[in-house]
Amino acid sequence: MEAVGLDLALMVFEHPEGAERVYSRVPTDGVSWAREIAFVEHHRHDRIVVRGTIAGHYVDADDEQEFIGTRTAEGAVGGAVVGALLGPPGVAAGLVGGGLIGSVAEERRGPHLRSALFDEVRREVPEGFSALILLAPVDDVEAMVSALEGQGGRLVRHHLTSEVASALQAAVADSPSAASPPSS
């Protein structure tokens, strides 16, 4: 996708699943922008989930993906020690419970996704909201805006310089290429 003449548009909706609900009600058969759309969810604790196609790449990113680490082991050992007071069944329960608590702590301490794309999403989509995001030529963005008109979303739109568009494309470059649309 050529970086010149691209817009970044986010149609922001209340509720983490609001964007998906609206998208499911909008006719998208044969619509070019529908093949370049991604869904963004901004959950509590500043957690961002992005799934869909951006700049020709399929993005499936969740910034709380690390679940096993040092805190998992520390939690399991600590739980086993506390559980030892209750005998062998307590050790087993403490090991599992402590490991689970440690895993949650490990997940929460991991770094948030940081790149031009995810930083932009954090600025524009409040916690507890979701959005449809489209990085596309102006005509495709206009078609999306028209299709979503009256659905209760708030439009955030940026006309991108070639440098900013290239930075956003670079943010997703390591993701796999999206499938080409079926030929008619």
Describe how the helices and strands are arranged:
Elements: E1 6-14, H1 18-25, E2 37-43, E3 47-54, E4 57-62, H2 70-83, H3 88-109, H4 116-124, E5 129-137, H5 138-148, E6 154-159, H6 162-171
Antiparallel strand pairs: 1-5, 1-6, 2-3, 2-5, 3-4
Helix pairs in contact: 2-3
Helix/strand order: EHEEEHHHEHEH
The level-1 CATH class of the largest domain:
Alpha Beta
Output the structural class.
alpha+beta
The overall pLDDT, averaged over residues, is 77
Relative helix content: 40-55%
Total count of helical runs of at least 4 residues: 6
Strand content: 15-25%
Number of strands: 6
Low-confidence stretches: none
Characterize the quaternary organization of these chains.
single chain
CATH architecture of the largest domain: 2-Layer Sandwich
- In total, how many domains does the architecture comprise? 2
> Radius of gyration from the CA trace?
21 Å
Q: Strands of the biggest beta sheet: in what spatial order?
A: 4-3-2-5-1-6
N-to-C span:
21 Å
Largest sheet: 6 strands, antiparallel
What is the fold-level CATH name, i.e. the topology of the largest domain?
Alpha-Beta Plaits
